[in-house]
Amino acid sequence: MKSIVLSGVVAALLVFSGCSSKDPVVDAETQEVEAPAAQEVKAVETETVSSESSVISSGTDSLTMSDIEKQLTSVYFDFDKFNIRADMQEKVTTSAAVANAAASAYSVKLEGNCDEWGSDEYNFALGLKRANAVKKALVAEGVDAARVAMVSYGESNPVCSDKTKDCWAQNRRVDFKLLP
Amino acid sequence: MKLFLSLLMLFSLSFAEDSTIEVIKRVDSLPSIAVEDSSISYDDTFKMRFFKSIVADLNVISIFNVDRHYRETHFNDTNVIVNNKDMNYVLRYKMFEDDNGALNIGIKLLEENKLVLSKNYKVGRKNIYMFISHAIAYDINEFMGEASVAWMKRKVIFSRIIAPKKSEIVIADYTLTYQHTIVKGGFNVFPKWANRAQKSFYYTALDAKIPTLKHVDIKTAKVTNVISSDGMMICSDVSDDGKTLLLTMAKDGQPDVYSYKTNTKKYTRETKYNGIDVNAQFMSKDKMVFISNRLGYPNVFAKRLGSSEVEQMIYYGKSNSACSAHGEYIVYKARESSNAFSANTFNLHLISTKTDFIRRLTATGVNEFPRFSKDGDAIIFIKNYMAQSSIGIIRLKHNKNYLFPLKYGRVQSMDW
Amino acid sequence: MDSAKTNEESTPTSSGSEVNEYLAKIQALVYKYFNVPPNSEGYSVMAYIELNSIGKVMDFRILNYSANDALNSEVDKIKNRLKSVVFPINPQNRSFNTKVILKSKE
Fold this sequence. Notes:
Largest sheet of chain A: 4 strands, mixed
Strand content of chain A: 5-15%
Helix content of chain C: 25-40%
Strand order of the largest sheet of chain C: 2-1-3
CATH architecture of chain C: 2-Layer Sandwich
Shape of chain C: elongated
CATH topology of chain C: Fusion Protein Consisting Of Minor Coat Protein, Glycine Rich Linker, Tola, And A His Tag, Chain: A, Domain 2
Largest sheet of chain C: 3 strands, antiparallel
Oligomer: heterotrimer
Number of strands of chain A: 6
Shape of chain A: globular
Distance between the termini of chain A: 66 Å
Number of helices of chain A: 5
Structural class of chain A: alpha+beta
Number of strands of chain C: 3
Order of helices and strands of chain A: EHEHEHEHEHE
Helix content of chain A: 25-40%
CATH superfamily of the largest domain in chain A: OmpA-like domain
Number of domains of chain A: 2
Radius of gyration of chain A: 22 Å
Radius of gyration of chain C: 16 Å
Largest interface: A-B, 64 and 80 residues
């Protein structure tokens, strides 16, 4: 009669904290440890540069990074498409202007998003193509390409979850984020 | 008179050299099996949990008609329980806790009251009891001479979205009964086993400064950065020997497939098209299938690593946006509606690259992310239907689908 | 066999019924170990079986396969299953062989 020891199979499953620039907490014991509520490491958030009362040297009004970020409004796209619509053109031009003036001290991160209820790589790529279309438009308006980074979240970052065409339209977008 | 004549005919026929017996049988008559619990340790709740697990596993191997009645007996009884006397097979098992607190399970497979198979299993902790259940079903399946179900014993790794831009990576058994969150916090997607032995895995960290592919050794919990790329950074597939990765990277916003050698850490660009090339999967050691929109819509193509010739593989449909390959077969995700204003349906289809065989594998909902098991016997996929996210398994030879729902969150991607 | 039966052996009817029973038992055993796979409806395979006088399987082979892969794989497995099966004792105390049509019902 054969004996099969299965303890080796899952013995060394360990829990550690998620990604960030810090080193994750490592438990080097070989036995499985049910970590006491594994630490949740916060993702790198965009920070406010300073309190509202301080003055930024560029001589503009004392605005925080997040205030400026609010001026960069999302660009919306049509179903299955990644070209910039005529009615979105003006938004992009305005954002380019902000990027070159009030936000000139920061990097710009473009986040591409989709509406489809699907998480395959293709959908991530579609989100990225949207971000790229916005980047190209910004560069065409004089923004330095080296300042602009892109990422795609596919449909993992919805702003709403109703099954309505309005909600889907709101999710097909590129968001602007500023990084110090 | 008639009867006499026919018997006479039978008699004369039977001893003629060219006699023939005809055995005609319906497709749905599978041999029956009942399960008897002879456990001597553990409370009723645990015993019932194990019983349900083994009954479900026996069902999934699809070679029996499984009787679901719970019955108890003594392990060494010479006869099966009276209610089971007409069963073709009886699986009798005994669970007991030894002095070290380990879970021991002994099984006997009886065929018409005759012992045909016996085995013992042991695990250190009872909370991974389901892996023994899977091993028992696997061993019985092997004993019956059926096609391998090695995938049943493997671990599944998946990422679960719990809130916008928040996810966790979980290791589970194929039924999701056992779940262990191995990466908590942050926004991490596309986990992928790094080797056949499932001792380490890759995943993409999206809230690093730029998307970064990371490698985790499960035993030591050591995390290393492998490679980063602006825009997109995904490990789509790993070669059988673990030495070559197929990556999707999007330097300058241009998503393409790259092959990457883990020993030299060098990558080679495999696709040159200006649009979208993603989701590469090994078809054989040096050939891959991938998704490209070079025809104006996403479709499945193939090419040899290192060469530039690209071949279209699917000639149906207007949007085929995910794929996986095994030998001569490709499974792909087809969008079957094109509505900007209502929910869309995505179904999985299977084709042969050598014949004109094509088969639709699913019928409703959003079915995506298909992956063949290493032995090609089954396909695992994600199903989102009516706000319920599940992992699905299709047994190709038996034409059966099984769904394992998630209690919370949405499955983003997975590997097994 | 007891003496009563021996007397009756000369009568075709009763021998016929013994043989009938013998064949029926063979048919029933093969039926039991034949697990018809799905999607094979209508296909059939021609096999050959040889039993010795005490019911042991001396030979089992496929003479003609069908056009259905699933059915073909299944009949290849039947040989192994029948290896340990004890067939009935031959009423004429001799070895016996026959062709067997294994058919998946439509």
